[in-house]
Amino acid sequence: MSGGAEVLVELKQRAGCCIDEAKAKLHSLSKDIWSCPELAYEERKSHDRLVAFFRQEEGWKVDAHFKLDTAFRATWRAEGGRGGRGGGGSEPGDVVNVGFLCEYDALPGIGHACGHNLIAEVGAAAALGLKAVLENICSLPVRVQVTVLGTPAEEDGGGKIDLMNEGAFDNMDVVFMAHPLQDDAPYLPLVAEHDVTIKYHGKTSHASAYPWEGINALDAAVLCYNNLSVLRQQMKPDWRVHGIIKHGGEKPNIIPSYTELEYYLRTPSRAELSILKTKAELCFRSAAVATGCKVEVQFAKNSFDNIMRNTTLEDLYEKNGKALGMEFTTDEEVLTNASGSTDFGNVTFVVPGIHPYFYIGSKALNHTEEYTVASGDDRAQFYTLRTAKALVMTALDVLLRPELLQKVKQEFTEAKLKQDRKQSANSC
């Protein structure tokens, strides 16, 4: 393919048209996932629906139950210099592998209140749009593989981390996904996070007749809670510790022999998270020492990292989004207020990528019943497909302008070194 800005603009427009042509089946896909909300690692119907979707599309090689029961992978490959009718082969060689991620787990009780049905639709739409353009280019400057990963359990567990540990991201060069919110934003600060469950074991006794025979596990839970409250004075302003007592006993006249707490620990970076975990664990264990209880401290299998930014990709996405009419937020409170966490953060430490946010036609807040309604509303479709177009346009930039892909990778390498140094300094 001969280069040139005009040709690239034309290809971007063609990709948008291809996505528009597929809008009915993409809407149906999203609606089916929305209508059958499933929790983390249990997204069987959503998994099957997405697998069937890609199997019905020509040229895709689909691996169901890819490394996890409810994960999948769909791949398509275009050969440089020969156009793109090659399908999903796996012959060796220098291939630029572009990934799009789909999420599709829901929240307990309120369904798709975080719009993961729309995330799945964006990933599918972007993949279809990119393939449709690449397969009609007579001569590509590089060999390209388009990979769609279905990543379960973002809300609880961290399916992307499981897949990462199994090598699912090892051969990717760049990865994209987008998350619905109340505004369009190329980047918002998400924090590192780790869940922890604390269990105290004491000894029952009659609380009035002979309390001295008991070991009060509720006292340990209360001390633990208060220890963490005292710790807040020595916490940095942007650290967060929040939790609940899940089990506090059976009856007032029985000294509790068992209590359980659950906490989330959050910091702006994964380097700081290890420091906070050490401080918090001292609070957990000292409560057991003071009361004579035994304690179990169970950190979740996966901790979520902060997102490692790639401003090259962010700037390209914002430029493409503006060309499509997106109005990106300039509200400093939105742009600087770190809040939630995502397992996509871990992915950004192994492959450069972006996780922009997109408006869906509603100012309802995520994780509310109102947002569940909004994520299933037909009005969300225009904004969802527009976001998919912006992702495809960004992918075309890095595929057809090799200097940009090199810049993306260089920024990733430098950012990774900086993060590693910070991690090493904090562990000393």
UniProtKB/TrEMBL annotation:
This is Peptidase M20 domain-containing protein 2. Signal peptide: none annotated. InterPro entries: Amidohydrolase (IPR017439), Bact_exopeptidase_dim_dom (IPR036264), Peptidase_M20 (IPR002933), Peptidase_M20/M20A_hydrolases (IPR052030), Peptidase_M20_dimer (IPR011650), Xaa-Arg_dipeptidase (IPR017144). Pfam families: M20_dimer, Peptidase_M20. Residues 196-287 form the Peptidase M20 dimerisation domain. Belongs to the peptidase M20A family. One of its GO terms (molecular function) is dipeptidase activity.
